Amino acid sequence: MPASTLLRYRRPVLVLSAHVVLWFVAWAAAFLLRFEFAVPERYQALQYTGWIVPLIFARAVLFARMGLFHGILRYTGSRDLEDLAKATVVGSALLAVAVYLGAVTGFPRSILFIEALVSVLLTGSMRYSIRALARVPARPEPGHDVRRVLVIGAGDSGEMLLREMTRNLGHRFLVVGLLDDDPAKQGARIHGVQVLGTINDARAVVNRLRVQEIVIAIPSASGKEMRRILDRCQAPGVEIRTLPSIADLIGGRVTVNQIREVAIEDLLGRKPVRLDDVAISGVIQGQVVLVTGAGGSIGSELCRQACRFGPRQIVLVEQAENALYEIHRELKARFPAVEIVPAVADVCDARRIHDLMQRYRPQLVLHAAAHKHVPMMEANPGEAVKNNVGGTRVVANAAHEAGVLRFVMISTDKAVNPTSVMGCTKRVAELYVQAMAQRSHTSFVTVRFGNVLGSNGSVIPLFKEQIARGGPVTVTHPDMVRYFMTIPEASQLVLQAGAMGQGGEVYVLDMGEPVRILTLAEDLITLSGLRPYEDVEIVFSGIRPGEKLFEELTIDDENATKTAHPKIFVGRSVARPFGAVDAALDELLALARKAEGDEIRNRLRAIVPEYRGTATVAPARGVIPLHGRAERAG
Prior knowledge:
The protein is of the alpha/beta class. The chain folds into three domains: about 5-135, no CATH class; about 145-260, NAD(P)-binding Rossmann-like Domain (Rossmann fold); about 280-455 and about 485-510 and about 550-605, NAD(P)-binding Rossmann-like Domain (Rossmann fold), CATH 3.40.50.720. The chain is about 45% helix and about 15% strand. The chain is built from 21 helices and 22 strands. The strands form five sheets. It has a nine-stranded mixed sheet, sandwiched between helices. Strands 3-4-2-1-5-6-7 form a seven-stranded mixed sheet, with helices on both faces.
């Protein structure tokens, strides 16, 4: 039998033996204390025989029932001490009852009280001594490089992180100090480490103490606060890392394994999204959900979020085999109670999509499949029309015929006053979904949002690749701004909007404040430990075909208003007659199969008069982009 297994079986016996010895000592000590170390001869027999045996038996049973012999002593806490005291007192109380019922005369009753007190003291001290010995700070190992660390934040998270780094990982990290803006904490010591100043003192402390790494231990910090901390702490050759947000910390326990690099999301961070879980569960729990584009950035996150609400079955529709394989494997591992159905399919294949809808009869369809790259679609307008317009019509028609209860189409801010083929095709798809809502029992709604941080093909991965190569980082225009959201945030709000929809609405997500792409590039270079314009150049490449400087989230006639959810607005423009829209799509799709780019663009302009080709424009007059409230100018 391996030594570890043998020890596992023998540990309770060893712990019991130690407690029995201490109880004997406590019994003898009680007599000595009671009689001031001069025990009368007539009580000496009672010290080691008689009542000590039933007392130990009762205590052993109580300790065993409360699991006190099976705990790991080095992890002893206040709860263990409470249980230990309870079991000890109850054991003494049982002995007192026995003495009373046995009408024992001459037995000093105070012995029971003193013995219980000494037993708690001895057994508790043994446990805490073992804990203290186990938590002696680890010493650096010879030949190993110990990193000098400065911790930002002397709150609860900073204390827990400091405790683990000093006691368990002292051979890897040496915490040289703490910084905190709280005046009451200045000069204080936590686990022997002093608070050396405020965050404004970071650079001076880094230089004076030769700091190699900074850890930001403020999980509740907003994006604005994180940016300020980063500005104050940035120093050549010093790595800056952080703890996850409060929402990502499980059970509030902080470990070194949770430390990660500061991400751009931390600097753009907003308050976590609060969902109406009851409403979403009512739409998803126990139902069949079908997601198109299930292997993409948004589609895959929609699948993850939907699975959290316990659907009976989720059908993953994806053209790219490898992407489908990855999301199918992940969901099977994470959500074993949900039946995951992978379906290789092209949304433009009407027969295949129709068969899938009829076979699985979903109650909810999330349509995320689309061509989304603006310059690529400018070069291939026919494919943009086939996929974004034709694919949406195929999926919407199949959903209608299958009696789907809710259909949610994912759209984009580029559909508003579009200047690109991609944006215009998404606007045409919106028009078709709105028109379908007039003639179908299916609730057809659209959810529109801006750029998603870290999505496939987005600007963040491109900038990181350019920085890794040493630059230059290419920004199209110094004044270009975009709205940004994290993938989980966007996906959660899509589900929330889908649960709200009655049919025909265009839901607009609150994207927060717009961000300059130039600022984004500078932040990413800084987060990489480099200096913008010195270590990595930033060059302006010019606006690409179809791009505009500013994105908008609503169209003039939509009259976007607040909903019950603070981050979701709804626009209700007058839908066009289904017959007219359907006929226009017939002509557009026929043209896409045979015509060149200019003819397709002219046909798109006929359907969407606000389409402005490849011109670069500012926001349309009379519209204020949504960021926190919906208003109209003038």
